[in-house]
Amino acid sequence: MSEELKTIKELADELGISKKYLQNKISYEKKKQNLSIGNWKKISGKNTIVLSDKEQTLIKSWLNSLEDKQEDKADSLEDKQEDKADSLEDKQEDKADSLEDKQEDKEKSYLKERISVLEKFLDKEQTSNSELKKIIQQTQNLLDQQQRLALQDKKY
């Protein structure tokens, strides 16, 4: 069974990436792993690097690994964004709660002040009522005294 050799351009087209990106990836991995990838072959009068099936599989695995890392990064970024959104939402809720607490405190303070004013007013009214009762009692005593005197005058 003969191997299907592909050029870097053909493999890049198959994978849907640019030839330059694939060349850079191969160059990076060759240096990193100290590998020899590709063989020179004359195609249409030009010396071109061709890749064996094994080399193509190895390159695809690198790209899949890279895609997995990118997906992990994207998932991680998404998680971070969700965490930030949750944190922001919590902060907004805390701020809203704080504002509500401040509003409640203002309302309580206002009501306490209002109660204090009403209690003072009630005290004044009670004092006035007490004084009025005394005046009524004195007036009643004077009327009773006047009636007694009037009865005495009739007797004489």
Describe the structure.
This protein has 156 residues and is mainly α. It has helices at residues 8-15, 19-33, 53-155, and strands spanning 6-7, 39-43, 46-51. Strands 1-3-2 form a 3-stranded antiparallel β-sheet. β2 and β3 (46-51) form a beta hairpin. The chain is rod-shaped. The N and C termini lie far apart (159 Å). The model has no long low-confidence stretch (mean pLDDT 87).
Give a brief description.
Helix content is 81%, strand content 8%. By secondary structure, it is mainly α.
Mean pLDDT across all amino acids: 87
What would the principal axes of the Cα set say about the shape? rod-shaped
How many DSSP E strands?
Answer: 3
Order of strands across the main sheet = 1-3-2
Give the low-confidence spans: none
Strand content: 5-15%
The radius of gyration is: 50 Å
Q: Main sheet?
A: 3 strands, antiparallel
User: Helical amount among residues, as a percent range?
Assistant: over 70%
Number of helices: 3
Secondary structure class reads mainly alpha
- How far from one another are the termini? 159 Å
Helix/strand order: EHHEEH
